[in-house]
């Protein structure tokens, strides 16, 4: 089977998705939002070890053209299989790519849907290989997803003190649904304050059901005090983390326990592995 190539596929569709400088596009929702430049986002990541990025940074400026693409992405979460590695009412698919310097491209690796974290960073599921479902092509080939990943790659290239674009680099894409069910909450693994294995991780909100409560991002500088709280509210609102800050996401429940709820995200991680 011919290996999947990430960047070469991206190049064919980014131009169709974005016109002009995609890093500075904005959508007018009654008032003009302040949209950071790519350099401003990179600087914030470098200085703080994290960044809260508004959705307008990632969105093309024609919202009418965007809507069908976003809807198709959202629909794919119905087919994401359960994460059976530990409790938490999560659904999860994954794919991994290795960077090939000679081709300047990311190539899908063997066993690309297996995932490993160290026990130091994940005391619940770390230290073992977890096997998830493999992300479907219709998700990966969606022009909106390609545009998001392309921007993340561009920023990763600028953050050369965190990520080296050599043969050890891995690009990991996670498709995750958190789905609290009636009285049963949904939560991440690990669910408490932790640091990441990955030196650079982008967490993009795809959609959130209005029945969800929780899901807020907490940031701590010493595991004893919470000094920032963020909430991802609109599709493509994004958090970016290095492996420096302690952070967590609060467990999710149902405001109306008679109704189900969901919170859908895509993670784009970069890590050098020998």
Automatic annotation (TrEMBL):
<dbReference type="GO" id="GO:0051213">
    <property type="term" value="F:dioxygenase activity"/>
</dbReference>
<dbReference type="InterPro" id="IPR018724">
    <property type="entry name" value="2OG-Fe_dioxygenase"/>
</dbReference>
<dbReference type="Pfam" id="PF10014">
    <property type="entry name" value="2OG-Fe_Oxy_2"/>
</dbReference>
<protein>
    <submittedName>
        <fullName>Uncharacterized protein</fullName>
    </submittedName>
</protein>
């Amino acid at each position: 089977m011919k290996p999947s190539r990430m960047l070469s596929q991206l190049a064919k569709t980014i131009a169709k998705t974005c016109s002009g400088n995609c890093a500075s596009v904005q959508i007018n929702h009654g008032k003009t939002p302040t949209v950071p430049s790519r350099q401003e986002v990179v600087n914030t990541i470098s200085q703080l070890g994290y960044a809260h990025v508004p959705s307008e940074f990632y969105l093309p400026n024609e919202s009418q053209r965007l809507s069908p693409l976003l809807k198709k992405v959202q629909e794919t979460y119905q087919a994401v299989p359960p994460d059976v590695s530990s409790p938490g009412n999560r659904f999860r698919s994954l794919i991994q790519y290795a960077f090939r310097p000679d081709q300047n491209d990311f190539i899908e690796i063997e066993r690309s849907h297996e995932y490993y974290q160290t026990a130091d960073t994940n005391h619940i599921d770390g230290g073992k290989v977890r096997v998830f479902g493999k992300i479907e092509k219709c998700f990966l080939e969606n022009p909106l997803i390609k545009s998001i990943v392309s921007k993340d790659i561009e920023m990763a290239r600028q953050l050369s003190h965190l990520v080296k674009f050599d043969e050890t680099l891995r690009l990991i894409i996670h498709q995750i649904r958190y789905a609290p069910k009636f009285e049963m909450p949904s939560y991440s693994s690990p669910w408490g304050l932790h640091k990441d294995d990955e030196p650079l991780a982008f967490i993009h909100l795809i959609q959130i059901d209005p029945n969800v409560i929780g899901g807020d991002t907490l940031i701590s500088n010493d595991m004893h005090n919470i000094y920032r709280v963020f909430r991802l509210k609109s599709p493509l609102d994004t958090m970016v983390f290095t492996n420096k800050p302690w952070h967590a996401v609060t467990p999710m429940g149902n405001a109306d326990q008679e109704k189900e709820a969901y919170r859908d995200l895509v993670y784009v991680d970069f890590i050098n592995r020998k």
